[in-house]
Amino acid sequence: MVMNNEVKPPEQLNDRQITIAKEWVNNELNARLPQSEFCKNHNLSTATLAKLRKENIDFQNYVKALKGELISNDEVRAYQVAKQHIINRVNSDSPTEKEIQQFLEHFDYVVQYEKIKAMDALGINKAGESTSNNKSVEEKKTMLLNRLKKK
């Protein structure tokens, strides 16, 4: 897939970042290389790419704009139909193992959200550390008893 130059890169991005953004979009939509291999091929550390993708708002917005340029409305509609089909199959009375696996692959963000919610309910942060340090002994006791009762 070839990108035209309709999407203007933000002035805050340098030439290298612009090239990486275009190559990253191409990778996500076509090549599908693992992040480590992509970085190796582009002489880029995984930490640098992660920082660009997670902390650099200009980079993030540029990548989104490039993806929007490359993905046609027909493709978006087709994806939405397929997505709804997967949801309908999993919500049926007897989803197959394959359909459940499809759901888990395509809706990983939902799974991650549920995990984070469960960890928060248990008083654990993303790093796996307890967030109950500033809770009273009674609150900690209640939380522990509630967790034990659920098992």
Strand content: under 5%
Principal-axis shape equals extended
Number of strands: 0
Low-confidence region ranges: none
Distance between the termini: 51 Å
Number of structural domains:
2
- Helices and strands, in order, run as HHHHHHHH
Average of pLDDT: 82
Blueprint of the fold:
Layout: H1 15-31, H2 35-41, H3 46-55, H4 57-70, H5 73-90, H6 97-106, H7 108-122, H8 137-150
Structure described in brief:
This protein is 70% helix and 0% strand. It is mainly alpha-helical and 151 residues long.
3D structure, described in words:
By secondary structure, the protein is an all-alpha fold. The protein has 2 domains: 15-70; 74-150, no CATH class. 70% of the residues lie in helices and 0% in strands. The protein contains 8 helices and no strands. The longest helix has 18 residues, at 73-90. The radius of gyration is 21 Å and the shape is extended. The model has no long low-confidence stretch (mean pLDDT 82).
Main features:
151 residues, mainly alpha, 8 helices
